[in-house]
Write a structure and sequence with these properties.
Layout: E1 35-40, H1 45-56, E2 63-68, H2 71-80, E3 86-89, H3 105-111, H4 114-123, E4 128-131, E5 135-137, E6 151-157, E7 163-171, H5 175-191, H6 197-206, E8 215-217, H7 226-229, H8 232-236, E9 244-246, H9 253-262
Parallel strand pairs: 1-2, 1-4, 2-3, 6-8
Antiparallel strand pairs: 4-7, 5-9, 6-7
């Protein structure tokens, strides 16, 4: 199925694949491995560095592309982590310097740029693992993404309804996936940043926008959300250690740092 080329009307707040041309050179390139995409600004730069350190400790060399949303984040990444990541800046390279209130319009504006970054890589034929930086990798997740799937997702909630997390998603560079991400961008634009990317992505998946989209849902025992992992009773019942730990289901930069420190996941 060929993708119909559309024109997304732009506003000063919208970054589209048309205006954002990713030019990068990965420090390590492993044929067939996806690009691991992270984004960060100054406010969450420490989390990005903590995530980078968690990956470094595994001894693996994934193809990491870091998109910096401001000049300080960019300069820090290229100065301190040239061997671990390839860093690029957004066209404006200006984002709020303080942590943003969850689901505020400014917060939505920042995170809602991510589908455009993902789409640009998919256009180039690159498989993409988008990864929030408020997590740590305890094992390499890439082997769990193999299979004949277009999209691989982590659950953010299972009951009373399934909600998928937009902060850890694998996108294979297929026509079905590109169509999905294009629809995602289009709806984000129409919502005028009143809704976050995760809500819009789940709406599309709930509607079965493409019934032929091949989806895989990751095992929550291995890829738990923050609500599960940081529940001591849940951890006591698990027989296998997780692959990643996602520090979500809590608001506030300092509270996230404190929780990671408490559980031994703060490495910087």
């Amino acid at each position: 199925m060929l993708i119909e080329r559309k024109t997304i009307p732009t506003t000063p707040e919208l970054i589209t694949p048309v205006v954002f041309d990713l030019k990068y050179q990965l420090p390590y390139t492993h044929a067939g491995d996806p690009i691991v995409l992270i984004t960060c600004n100054r406010a969450f730069l420490d989390f990005a560095q903590n995530w980078i350190e968690s990956v470094r400790r595994l001894g693996t060399r994934p193809n990491v592309l870091a998109i910096a949303e401001d000049i300080e984040a960019y300069r820090t990444l290229i100065r301190k982590h040239p061997r671990e990541v390839s860093a690029v800046m957004t066209p404006r390279a200006a984002s709020p310097q303080a942590a943003l209130k969850y689901l505020s319009r400014e917060y939505n504006l920042l995170i809602n740029r991510r589908p455009a970054y993902i789409y640009r890589l998919l256009q180039k034929g690159k498989d993409v693992l988008f990864c929030d930086v408020d997590m740590v990798w305890l094992r390499d997740p890439l082997p769990y993404l193999v299979g004949d799937y277009d999209v691989v997702l982590q659950e953010d909630l299972h009951d009373p309804k399934v909600v998928y997390c937009a902060g850890f998603v694998f996108f294979r560079a297929t026509n079905a996936t590109r169509s999905l991400v294009w629809e995602w961008m289009d709806r984000i634009h129409k919502a005028r940043n009143r809704l976050p990317d995760q809500k819009i992505l789940n709406d599309i998946l709930d509607e079965k926008f493409d019934p032929n989209l091949r989806m895989k849902v990751l095992d929550s025992d291995l890829f738990p959300n923050g609500k599960l992992y940081f529940d001591v009773r849940w951890r006591e019942q698990r027989k296998r250690p997780p692959v990643i730990v996602h520090n979500n289901w809590i608001e506030g930069h300092e509270l996230k740092v404190e929780r990671f420190k408490e559980h031994g996941f703060w490495y910087i």
